[in-house]
Amino acid sequence: MLAFPPEIVSTALTCRVDYNSIQVKFNPLILCASIAAILLLAAGVGRAQATVEADLLGQAATAFKAGDMPSSIRLYREFLKDHPDAAEIRSNLGAALVRDGQFGAAIVEYRSALETMPSNTRVRTNLALAYYKLGRLPEAIENLKLLHEQQPMEPKPALLLADCLLQVGEPQKAADLLAPFEQEFPDNHSITYMFGMALLQAKHPQQAQLILDRILREGESAESAYLLGQSEFMANNLVAAAEHLARAVRLNPKLPGLHSFYGQVLRSNGQLEEATAQFRQELDLNPYDFISNIEISVVDKQDGKLDEATVLVGRALQVRPTDPGALFQRASVYFAQDRLEESRQEFVNLLAKYPEYPEAHSALARLYYRLNRTAEGDQEKEAARRIRDAAQRQLEEAERRRIQRVAKDTAGKQ
Known about the structure:
This protein is mainly α.
């Protein structure tokens, strides 16, 4: 498996609220208002033409409600040819595109609508959800932060924002965001659960335990078993962690993030085939799970499935564009594909940001040797050795100080 330096890559997986059920918002009341406006403006464009356009919008709305998205999309686009500045109708087109699975096209429409009405929370929520479903979390976060500023104590955008922050590896920001909500909405199970997960990942075990105790008092659930598994894993109790997570899977196999975290625990236990199966199950539920994409890309690379590995690492970087472990994996896949210059440039760029990354120096050394650039290969190999030796000395010094403290404490008790 790929080695990620612990000081720069956290492998703690988020546990998310299931937002797959959240639907974009289509506003039929606004549609009716638009039809009325057209009729009122009939004198300017001709009553017959206004009636045709009102009927066009009515048909589009009817098609949407009936689930006929291709017809709804076609009708909205026909209307917008003559009324390109009708922002609310453009937003409804975006909703139809999302329902049809065309998230990228929906984003274009939502962004266009927001140019006309930038304070519209409904449209911005839809835009954030479209980014979320495409795994474009940095852009989702940007829009969710704006929504949070507009609605500072509205739980739904805050929960989605916290989820995104956990997925991109910023648990402390998620915990800070949710703290006032946990006080204001103590009976909101989703907030309590997400807050507990954020505290665990931000390494506040005592505070997290208080949250966990509250959840456990409500009875056994997949969520409580997941949190217990996370807590045991962070305490390095791998067997107990695996037992809790297996129980969580039995209780709710569709709990977001569960299979991915269970996979991490199994991998740590040396159960690589079982771990791989869990990562694949997670990707069936969420194609943009960061850890699962990285882990399966490593497996596919080892199996020679390089095109598949490229797709997976691309998804991971869509979620965390600057993650050094993911950037390392992309450079490694390029190397395996004999895209040597692209691989070299990736490693060089990575080391410019993370110069103390020994695995990257070692990989770049192998690449230079492959290119018969021996002197540069030797330089990178030496850099990797120097970094590893320094890290070993730090460990030895830490152990020496620990032994001294133990000896001092023991002498003080005698």
